Amino acid sequence: MSQTNPLPSMKEFNQILAPYQTPAWKPAIFQLINTLVPYFVMLGLMALSLRVSYLLTLLLSVLTGALLMRIFILFHDCGHNSFTPSRKANKVIGFLLGVFVFTPSEQWWKSHSIHHATSGNLDKRGVGDVLTWTVEEYKAKHWTEKVGYQLFRFPLIMFGLGPLWIFLVHHRFAAPRYSPRETMSVVWTNVALVAYVALASWLMGGLVNFILVQLPVFWLGGMFGIWMFYIQHQFEGVYWARDEEWDYVSSALKGASFYNLPKVMQWFSGNIGYHHVHHLSPRIPNYRLEDCHKGIPLFQQEVKTIGFWQALRMIRLQLIDESMNNRLPTFLEIMG
Prior knowledge:
Elements (H helix, E strand, L loop, with lengths): L9 H8 L7 H25 L4 H26 L7 H14 L4 H14 L16 H6 L2 H11 L1 H15 L10 H25 L2 H25 L16 H8 L2 E3 L2 H6 L6 H6 L8 H7 L2 H5 L2 E3 L23 H5 L1
Parallel strand pairs: 1-2
Helix pairs in contact: 2-3, 3-4, 3-10, 4-9, 5-9, 8-10, 9-10
């Protein structure tokens, strides 16, 4: 952040962002059609491919998994009431999309809203974010906890086992911190999932076929999604501050990146690469994020831009070093 040109306040930003904050039915319906139709067509093709070769099934799962990630973004927008102009429609559509992505709508939306309200706040970590310790916290832990944290941050575990754990296990249970409405969303999602799995299994010729088709899709789609979420908050120069100094605007523009993806990947990720815009105003629909980014010059000046290949280097960043302006060192640097 420039010292001579402080960022506008959120009140000032709301005036600037107002033209982009209104959802519309036409793009929302179009996105549902151009996402759900190809997704279920791909699932059908994968089921048919089982008669030919499972290798072909796995190859088809790459595109299907990318479509699943896009479905998750539409589900995510429903939680912000930024997908359609109707709050009721957002709730209904969001619940149904939540079934397709094996995620209870109300509980996940609550967790995600906490993430938006606390992102970059060192004193309010732990809900809806990727667990990240400070260097001092890491050094103070018992060696068993250090090993556990290192394993959690190991790419093959975070991006490999993480999707299966989150979607197939973690989301099946209600968290104690949430309200009865959010708890019941877990129950109703699980009930709907039983019906969905039963119907899909019947159409695909059995439960085993359903698992052979759906499992790689969820693994890849979840891996893509976790990667997107991780890289947009874990990069050199990312904003972290203690509660008394934490600022919402700074956390959005300095604590969320602009992940500059190729157009095709931008489409599959539902424009979520414009993460700084989304964090500044979750009311902006995914289909207006790019226009907002390009329409406000400040975003090109104040936001961290990360390229597709550059992002791969961010995997090695593991901790928050408060003594060095919150830079993110690796485990090797700390041990050295």
